[in-house]
């Protein structure tokens, strides 16, 4: 993939694809690790501190699963490809926060919505 349109700078991540930017996510996990142990029973839908990852309750499984963030909090860069199965949910969540997702310099970013 290094010779692809997305090149080595993105570590093979395709902003239009179905994947996730693991390279950037790993940087964020090192900067803000999840230090809370996995809860053994239900304690709320989301358990997190100031970490990049969080424990998310999965009712259908009866347990928590670790989930990583969709946005790099340092830059607003979106870490999911546009074809990712939860892209639409991420965009809706950003709208609820008053943000919009834009394409700039070959990547998607979340930023506060601009006025009318």
Word description of this protein:
- This protein starts with 21 loop residues before the first helix and ends with a strand.
- Strands 1-2-3 form a three-stranded antiparallel sheet, with no helix packed on it. A two-stranded antiparallel sheet has the order 4-5.
- It has 116 residues and is an alpha+beta fold.
- It has helices at 22-31, 87-96, and strands at 46-47, 53-58, 63-68, 99-104, 107-112.
- The protein has one domain.
- Strand 2 (53-58) and strand 3 form a beta hairpin.
Offer a quick outline of the entry.
The chain is α+β, with helices and mostly antiparallel strands and 116 residues long. It has one domain (8-112). Helix content is 17%, strand content 22%.
Please give a handful of descriptors for the protein shown.
single chain, 116 residues, alpha+beta, three-stranded antiparallel β-sheet, two-stranded antiparallel ribbon, 17% helix, 22% strand, globular, disordered N terminus
């Amino acid at each position: 993939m290094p010779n692809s349109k997305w090149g080595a700078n993105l570590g093979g991540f395709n902003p239009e694809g179905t994947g996730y930017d693991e390279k950037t996510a790993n940087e964020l996990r090192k900067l803000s690790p999840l230090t809370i142990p996995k809860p053994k029973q239900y304690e709320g839908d989301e358990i997190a501190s100031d970490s990049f990852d969080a424990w998310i309750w999965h009712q259908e499984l009866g347990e928590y699963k670790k989930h990583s963030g969709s946005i790099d909090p340092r830059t607003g860069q979106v870490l999911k490809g546009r074809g990712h199965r939860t892209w639409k949910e991420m965009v809706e969540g950003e709208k609820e926060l008053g943000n919009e997702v834009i394409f700039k310099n070959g990547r998607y970013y979340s930023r506060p919505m601009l006025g009318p």
